[in-house]
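Quick note —
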Amino acid sequence: MARKGPREITKLKSTGSKEVYWTTKNKRNVTERLELKKYDKTLRRHVIFKESK
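Predicted structure written out below.
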């Protein structure tokens, strides 16, 4: 079954290393690029993850 609605899977890349984090985002409500502060396993600290294509 296909998903309904504007929600789309996006990839977030770490600013400090090559760590990748996958999440979903509602494209209707959030039009700009997503930035989340998440834990980076390789650096062992919280860093900013930015949306990438």
